[in-house]
């Protein structure tokens, strides 16, 4: 018994903790792996592509309990975080912010006017952009998928996987993809509460 107790204590002491999200001056939760850019969407798409990744924009707001939950419960999960970090360049937007944004169609906006123009009203909202910038289209028109609101781990992760696998170009709608993956997880005994 003492050996088992010692092993448990050692595991707790030396386990590498997942870094917690911090809260910035703007009141938004921050991940150290979120990209800081000049918010020129076409440039960000190209930079992501050069890194072998896709661009995802995440709209949040100060005091959003669902954003906090996303950061503390979903993005802190190593499986979720590692997949997103490996496949996506994520840029955070403040739904009511004043930072300058250049849309794909060339319009120069603030974060808040961009959110209104693109029709994003929920936080968090994650917008997935194509691999190459669509000239003349706005972000909302060019987006290959949008995830409005907060979801559990598997819905959240499966949406990133579906976009990464270009499911939007296939006949398998996201809901069908998600149901198939959930069934596979059940068979493997890996499904936790969703």
TrEMBL record:
Record's keyword terms, sorted: Signal
Signal among keywords: yes
Domain Thioredoxin-like fold positions: 48-137
CDD domains xref list: SoxW (cd02951)
The UniProt record lists the keyword Aminoacyl-tRNA synthetase: no
Pfam families per UniProt: Thioredoxin_2
Signal peptide location: 1-20
Protein name (record): Thioredoxin SoxW
Organism: Lutibaculum baratangense AMV1
């Amino acid at each position: 018994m003492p050996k088992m107790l010692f092993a448990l204590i050692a595991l707790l002491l030396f386990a590498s903790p997942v870094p917690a999200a911090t809260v910035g001056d703007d009141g938004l939760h921050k991940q150290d792996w979120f990209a800081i850019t000049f918010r020129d969407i076409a440039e960000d798409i190209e930079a992501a592509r050069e890194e072998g990744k896709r661009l995802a924009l995440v709209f949040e707001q100060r005091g959003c309990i669902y954003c906090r939950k996303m950061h503390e419960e979903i993005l802190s999960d190593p499986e979720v975080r590692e997949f997103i970090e490996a496949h996506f360049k994520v840029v955070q937007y403040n739904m009511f912010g004043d930072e300058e944004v250049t849309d794909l169609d060339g319009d120069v906006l603030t974060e808040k006017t961009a959110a209104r123009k693109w029709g994003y009203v929920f936080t968090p909202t994650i917008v997935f952009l194509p691999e190459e910038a669509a000239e003349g289209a706005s972000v909302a028109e060019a987006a290959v998928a949008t995830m409005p609101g907060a979801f559990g781990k598997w819905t959240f992760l499966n949406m990133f996987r579906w976009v990464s696998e270009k499911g939007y170009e296939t006949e398998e709608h996201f809901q069908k993809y998600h149901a198939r993956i959930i069934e596979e997880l059940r068979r493997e005994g890996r499904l936790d509460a969703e």
